[in-house]
Design a protein that fits this description.
The complex is a heterodimer. By secondary structure, chain A is of the alpha/beta class. Chain A has 13 helices and 14 strands. Chain B is about 75% helix and about 0% strand. In chain B, β1 and β2 form a beta hairpin. In chain B, α6 packs antiparallel against α7. The chains are: A alpha/beta, B mainly alpha. The interface between A and B is medium-sized, with 37 and 27 residues.
């Protein structure tokens, strides 16, 4: 999964905040999305992902902060910004009494003659050409998701924003959407997708931002977010003594017991697993397994999002 | 490049494909006129001395009263649908996400809806005129001026009620509620205001009082329901009609521009 990113971000926000009454749905979000990547916006339900997307698209106004889309200030320059952006926000909705083709036609009418001419090709791209003249009311959820993607391809976008695109899809449908996103990125375009499906995000995205309770808690390349290769799993004869020994080794962090025979610790740069092994053996502890390990996105996600919880909420 | 014409066509498409609603509008207007003429013709044929001719000038003017109700109802249903369908279906968000001006999105609903409503009403009006000649039974028939004035009245009723329904539906973001409120307005509240003699000439502000001034047989002296007369000139009636349209349209546009998508 190699991608080239240019310096100028396609999406940038600074201190972006949107309140609904006293509650801040997003609060002081600073986001940078470079071009040419699949960028995942990850967060639990209600974290503020959809609100952030709605503000980015000018569907709702921010309470504070600034946003730029394709280099244009939002919402002031929304027409120029959205000219090369396609978006599906939440579940794709349609006029169910119209056919798939007619639903695309009413959106294309707002865009350009070229968009109207593009209808057959986008229907073919999402595999709906044969069902395009049937009423959307007869479509399955998966077909509606595909029609939603077709709708946001009408303006031949450079940036595609997909909010929870995997919702309601069966495994084959998810695979189709994933392949579509990757092919879109391979064409040098950019995809911003939001989801709470960690596994799908890990498979699809190059970069992610984790958002929780309206705060952007971390963003970066997937490999950076997972914490590199500095985690080591240690399986030994005496976990309690091993923890004491390892905590005395200079620079070792987060010594945590996984179970009665296993410890996980994070090594500082320049410290090798061999040094760790030597310390344990010198202390008379038998080491039966020593393995480098990269944290999964799920682990990092849970780690980052639970940090914001109060102790009472964590218990609840 | 302006997208106004394609956007108007898209609005027309959205309404035209609502076959149930379109059928209802046709049944209400064209069907209503046909039924009224046929029944009156049968009554007249069975008892010519007791029942006047279904057609002729008299029958034409009498039938406009019924036509007023059905045309208003059709305009309200189409207007409310045109105003609420994008928000109700959730498509409004996708339209805004194209970057298109919200003012244009709101504005094209009016011509798009009238493109469907006016032909239906014109057909019904044509049927009414045909009945006026077909069932005249030797009585005087409407002249060209009467027919044109009647057409003007019909346009005023249609455009006003369509725009008010559209604006209200956008404002409330609810088609059913808008239709219910407007039926209540026409059947109860406006009639109550019309009988309120202390309001005097201010009663011209009631939309139906203003549009009735454009009926072919109307004069400046309009008799209210409680029997009093008020003075309603064509100019004043025109100002009232335009004001209703302008206020409803402005409110609908304001809501479209400011609402969260």
């Amino acid at each position: 999964m190699t991608t080239t990113t240019s310096a100028a971000p396609l999406v940038e926000t600074r201190g972006l905040t949107r309140r609904f009454g006293a509650r801040a749905a997003i609060d002081g979000v600073d986001l940078r999305i470079p071009s040419g990547v699949a960028f995942g916006l990850l967060g639990p339900n209600g974290a503020g992902k959809t609100t952030l997307i709605r503000v980015l698209l000018g569907l709702i106004k921010p309470s504070a902060g600034d946003a730029w889309l394709m280099g244009h200030a939002m919402p002031a320059e929304h027409a120029a910004a959205l000219a090369s952006v396609g978006a599906v926000v939440e579940e794709p909705r349609f006029h169910t009494h119209l056919t798939g083709r007619e639903n695309l036609a009413i959106v294309a009418a707002c865009i350009s003659d070229a968009a109207e001419a593009r209808i057959p090709s986008v229907l073919a791209r999402v595999g709906l050409a044969e069902r395009a003249d049937e009423r959307v009311g007869t479509y399955s959820l998966g077909m509606r998701q595909r029609l939603g993607i077709a709708r946001c391809l009408l303006n031949d976008p450079q940036l595609l924003i997909l909010d929870e695109p995997m919702n309601g899809l069966d495994p084959a449908g998810m695979l189709e959407v994933r392949d579509f996103i990757r092919s879109f990125v391979d064409e040098g375009r950019t995809v911003l997708l939001s989801s709470h499906l960690l596994d799908e995000m890990e498979r699809t995205c190059d970069m992610v931002a984790i958002i929780d309770r309206g705060h952007l808690v971390r963003q970066g390349r997937l490999s950076e977010l997972r914490g590199g290769e500095n985690r080591v799993i240690v399986e030994c004869s005496d976990v309690a003594r091993a923890r004491t020994v390892l905590q005395s080794v200079n620079g070792i962090e987060h010594v945590a017991g996984e179970d009665s025979r296993t410890l996980v610790c994070t090594l500082p740069d320049g410290t090798s697993p061999a040094q760790l092994n030597r310390a344990l053996v010198t202390a008379g502890i038998d080491v039966s397994r020593l393995e480098r390990s990269q944290a999964s996105l799920e682990e990092r996600f849970l780690d980052l999002t639970t940090r914001l919880q109060t102790p009472e909420e964590a218990i609840a | 490049m302006s997208r106004i014409v394609p956007m108007i066509n898209a609005e027309f498409l959205k309404l035209r494909k609502r076959r149930g609603m379109l059928a209802l509008a046709i049944v209400l207007t064209v069907g209503g006129v046909v039924v009224a003429n046929v029944f009156e013709a049968i009554y007249h044929a069975t008892s010519p001395l007791k029942y006047a001719a279904a057609g002729g000038m008299h029958g034409f003017l009498t039938n406009l009263t019924l036509f007023n109700i059905t045309a208003t109802l059709a305009a309200v249903i189409l207007g409310a649908t045109a105003g609420a369908q994008d928000t109700g279906s959730g498509v409004f968000r996708s339209l805004v996400a194209t970057g298109q001006s919200r003012l244009k999105l709101a504005g094209v609903r009016i011509p798009g809806g009238l493109m469907l409503l006016l032909p239906v009403l014109l057909v019904a009006y044509g049927v009414e005129l045909a009945g006026a000649f077909l069932f005249a039974s030797g009585t005087p028939t409407p002249d060209g001026t009467t027919m044109l004035v009647g057409l003007g009245w019909l346009m005023a009723v249609a455009v006003l009620n369509f725009c008010v329904a559209l604006g209200l539906a956008v404002l409330l973001q609810a088609r059913g509620t808008a239709i219910g409120l407007l039926i209540a307005w026409h059947l109860a509240l406006s009639r109550l205001i019309e009988t309120a003699a202390p309001l005097g000439n201010w009663r011209v502000l009631v939309s139906s009082v203003a549009t009735d001034r454009f009926l072919p047989n109307a004069t400046d002296l309009v008799t209210m329901r409680e029997g009093n007369t008020i003075t309603v000139t064509i100019a004043v009636a025109l100002v009232v009609v335009v004001a209703w349209i302008a206020v409803a349209t402005a409110l609908g546009m304001w809501r479209t521009v400011t609402q969260d998508a």
